[in-house]
Amino acid sequence: MLILLGLLALAIGAGFIGSLSGLGGGVFIVPALLIFAHVPMSIAVGASLISVVATSAGASVAFVRDGWTNLRVAMVLECATVTGAVTGAYLAGIVPSWVLELLFAVMMLQSAYFTVTKAGDSIVPHSDALAERLRLGGRIPAESGNAEVDYGVVHLPGGAAMMVVAGLMSGLLGIGSGALKVMAMDYIMHLPLKVSSATSNFMIGVTAGAGALVFLARGDVATVIAAPVALGVTAGALVGSRLLPHVNVQALRYLFVVILVLIAVEMGWRALSGF
Amino acid sequence: MDNSIAEEERILRVWTPILLRTILVAAIVLLLAGLIVMAWHNPGQYVARFHRLQSHTRYENRQSLAYLASTAIGGNSRSIMTLGLMVLTLVPLVRVAFCFLLFLRERDGIYVMLTAYVLIGLVVGVILGRVG
């Protein structure tokens, strides 16, 4: 019973921090399972992918309903993320654990960088020709006295290329790759930041789902671990999202960065020890 | 925005949250039920399985859907939870399939192709997992 409660506590904590930091539960649950529960990498990744599907489904509902999610951009870019995720999840069954751990460390550092530099809305009023043809432009919903604003979308091929990488990392490492997705949409495609976050949240479900299907079909999902992890991460994320409006996330930013760097060091060390 | 696109957008915004929420709740009910049954009736089995997982570098958990369904009905907690996990992974598949059907109905050619590609990608994932 203690083991079960411990796993649930780990998952709730990972979901909670994942939600507050905006990086998602996967980034925290995979290292937590490796370090504290001592389970193999493939089992940690399989359990994490399923929990990411659950949190994405839960978190994206309100954004879709309120019009923040750009559904067409999501559907176009999902072609890229699914391609990457299926490839990544397949490769995860072949690549040695130490390589995955090393990649994880690199991704943690990228997430830390993203947490520090995340800023800036540079929206464009009109879409370029390709985005226009796919009708990707959208409208920022009216919020707290501000009127609706139309925005355009540009540089779809560049964004899609980054999405293939995001999908690959998701399938290999069991994370949602939200940081890469938001960077692709915000920096490259010039979507408004909140639209990028909402759309990324929505896409994460399909990306992680594609990876989870590969793991499930391969038999790499350990029910006794994945079930409490999925429940715990979802519960933690729910609590985190309720607390989010009342917490000064900016002040917590540097705490998240310290946690991410510590995870990167630990994962890097594990990789080099296993090499 | 022309009328048919606005209608497409409206249907997506109304139905996507309903679909996501319904499947998510169904999966959570199955997972919770399985965990409670296991913790209540056979906590020792849980601990034994957990320790076995820690000592294996390679793990394989493959059962047919028919086997899982029949044992879940018989009250097997692990089968109930495995079904819960499967339902959870169906969330994105069902959501994309819904979009595909909607675009097909609206004869929105480009988006029919894009969603079909994603659906095929998900199916290829299952096949790759089976052979890999």
Question: What can you tell me about this protein's structure?
Answer:
The complex is a heterodimer of chains A (275) and B (132). Chain A is mainly α and 275 residues long. Chain A has one domain (2-273). Chain A has helices spanning 2-21, 26-35, 41-65, 71-92, 97-117, 129-133, 156-173, 178-188, 193-218, 223-243, 249-274, and strands at residues 138-140, 149-151. In chain A, strands 1-2 form a two-stranded antiparallel ribbon. In chain A, strand 1 and strand 2 (149-151) form a beta hairpin. In chain A, helix 5 runs antiparallel to helix 11. The mean pLDDT of chain A is 90. With 132 residues, chain B is mainly alpha-helical. Chain B has one domain (2-131). Helices cover 86% and strands 0% of the residues of chain B. Chain B has helices at residues 3-41, 43-55, 65-73, 77-105, 109-131. The longest helix of chain B is centred in the first third of the chain and has 39 residues, at 3-41. At the A-B interface, helix 3, helix 4, helix 9 and helix 10 of A face helix 1, helix 2, helix 4 and helix 5 of B.
Task: List the SSEs and their pairings.
The complex is a heterodimer of chains A (275) and B (132).
Chain A lengths: L1 H20 L4 H10 L5 H25 L5 H22 L4 H21 L11 H5 L4 E3 L8 E3 L4 H18 L4 H11 L4 H26 L4 H21 L5 H26 L1
Chain B lengths: L2 H39 L1 H13 L9 H9 L3 H29 L3 H23 L1
Helix pairs in contact in B: 1-4, 3-4, 4-5
Which tags fit this structure?
heterodimer; A: 275 residues; mainly alpha; two-stranded antiparallel sheet; 2% strand; B: 132 residues; 5 helices
